[in-house]
Amino acid sequence: MVSTFSRQVAEGVLKLLGNDDVRVLDQCNCLNYTYVLIGTRLGEFLGIAYTPVEDLRAGEVGVIPRVEELPELVTNLDSLVRTLGIALVNAVSHYLVVREGLRLTQGDLKREILRYAKPPCTACFIGSITPVAEALRGQCTVYQLERRSDLRHDSYPDVDAPLIIPRCDLLVITGSAIINNTIDQLLIMRRDGAITILSGPSAAAYPPVLHGLGIDVVGSSLVKEPRLVIELLKLGAGYRLLDRRGLLFKYVSVRDSHG
């Protein structure tokens, strides 16, 4: 069996979880974000992940995510099932952050990325993070790759990745690459020594696990008020609305060798 990045993340989180009792209380593939709510001895935790509307198909219905099945969920052929798996990974990871007392630094991803932009450099953003990409222009040669044509604007299609990624010093990947199964190819194409940054709400797996898999910087977020966020997601809320409402704790985690 091929050990993909997402499977390794799921297995790493499960290993740390051990025999702790974690119950799935609720789940939904909502319009913008998928969520999974879990109950633990330390309370309820909500994990969210991008709903891949560009990859929807007539797939399985009624799949209830189970913690013990995490490696199979995140590698399922159906994109909606994979998304539920990633959201569950993120929920369990939030529990682990609290259980282990992991100190996460509240931070701004844009400021963190600028620390690594040392001219002359070449940066590639996988996914639409236009405000951050624009902040680097003038310091670096900047490329953006985007799968969805409606979000592409002046970005390049993701099929151009083999022509761009190997020349980059700085690689910023959105968490949706875990969901759509492109992250493994992206990591294989990166040049030796390239700084790799994983960003966005879908990238909220337990940071030490991600660092152990070669991710230098993680910029993600944790949900503050699970029940309120659930109601907003059911109504079609996206990341920006949750952020404006102050419902996300945004953090930056840096691997020791770079911090």
Structural write-up:
This protein is of the alpha/beta class and 259 residues long. 35% of the residues lie in helices and 25% in strands. It is built from 11 helices and 11 strands. It has helices spanning 5-17, 70-73, 79-100, 109-116, 130-136, 161-164, 176-179, 183-189, 207-212, 226-234, 239-244, and strands spanning 23-29, 33-40, 43-50, 105-106, 121-126, 140-146, 156-157, 170-174, 195-199, 217-223, 248-254. An 8-stranded mixed beta sheet has the order 4-11-10-9-8-5-6-7. Strands 1-2-3 form a 3-stranded antiparallel beta sheet. Helix 1 (5-17) runs parallel beside helix 3 (79-100) and helix 4 (109-116) packs parallel to helix 5. The longest helix has 22 residues, at 79-100. The chain is globular.
Question: What labels would you give this structure?
Answer:
alpha/beta, 8-stranded mixed sheet
Mean pLDDT level? 91
SSE succession: HEEEHHEHEHEEHEHHEHEHHE
Number of helix segments? 11
The total strand number stands at: 11
Low-confidence spans:
none
Give the terminus-to-terminus CA distance.
34 Å
Kindly estimate the percentage of residues that lie in beta strands according to DSSP: 15-25%
Shape: globular
Helix-strand category: alpha/beta
- Describe the largest sheet: 8 strands, mixed
| Radius of gyration, in angstroms, nearest whole number | 17 Å
- Major sheet: arrangement of strands: 4-11-10-9-8-5-6-7
